[in-house]
Prior knowledge:
Residues 20-397 form the Major facilitator superfamily (MFS) profile domain. The protein is mainly α.
Amino acid sequence: MSVASLRRAVTETVSGLPREFWWLWTSTLVNRLGAFVATFMALYLTLDRGYSASYAGLVAALHGLGGVLSSLGGGVMADRLGRRPTLLVAQISTAFSVALLGFVQHPVGIAGVAFLVGATSNASRPAVQAMMADIVRPEDRVRAFSLNYWAINLGFAVSSMAAGFIAEASYRAGFLLEAGMTLACAVVVFVKVPESRPETTAAAASAPEAAVSLGTVLRDGRFMSVVGLSFLVALIFQQGAIGLPIAMGEAGFTPADYGMAIAINGVLIVVLQIPVTRFIEHRDPRRLLVVSSLLAGYGFGLTAFAGSVGIFALTVCVWTLAEIVNAPTQTGLVVRLSPVHGRGRYQGMYTMSWSVAALVAPLMSGLVIDRFGAEWLWGLCAVVGTAAGLGYGALMRRLPAGDTPGVKAPAPAKSEVSAA
């Protein structure tokens, strides 16, 4: 590709998005540059504190349980109170709870604060996703979500490599660094990001889509099917932060080894997310979701044959490709299935699928590794990936073309355009 072609591709990728989106994007990037707890919690508990894999799994599960409860609560807050207040409360609370985690010593205290960190950190996600859907035009949303995902992984790639070495010197320093970066995110939101919640006029309030409750979301069968399949895929991807570090630690690898291997995930997403998104943007999402699920399952399944940092890194490459394809495709589908005035609740339910996976995955990982060995965990990932692929294949055949991103659909209603 020539320099001119590359410049044109970059310009087309970033142009046309509102200024508010870029401040929200900046907040996301700053937050992920300081990421530490989610990446190194398992190693902190097993190597630094000397706890078992089962206890590390229990603590990570409590972290996930906090996320389960706050995902729905954060979605309701985003719809009722607004996106901006929800973001500010969640980010400030996260900063203080992460800092506290670096100082607690008692195992019960560690577990309790981990629950608090999970609750506060996940409360912001529905608000972020709903805000992006509010401020970005429907035709630009897949691109916007891809750029946001790119920022997440740019920060993750940098923080993973740096945090691996920070952990060898002081885990507490990592916790304090994350707390400081999260506070910086709150400052960016407070100063630069305005409220985006669509106003509900008298006419809109009488419309069927305005009366959205959690019960409405639960009764939406096709959306809940997407949530269920998302849970299966998330269950697999969680092993990058849960099963993989425990397995590598038990095999004699250091935190820096794990940091370098998992950083490949972030680096590849930074390099490939935008060009791959441009390639798949107008392709059939039905096939993309099936293929990405299979790649995720069998990518982790290949980890059973890894015996060096290089081989571990190669397996990371396989399931990272699945992540690159799955993330914008699935997020675009979720937004399209969500009514305008219920975006917070719908995004909260979708976020909860990942939070429930964060609850179940640690328990599953620790139990399977302790009782049967890591090889059984990786085989189970292949089975779950196959099940998710079959599920997406069956579900997407029943969805009309207009309900799937990337498939030609009728023009959006004026109410949706004005709300965004």
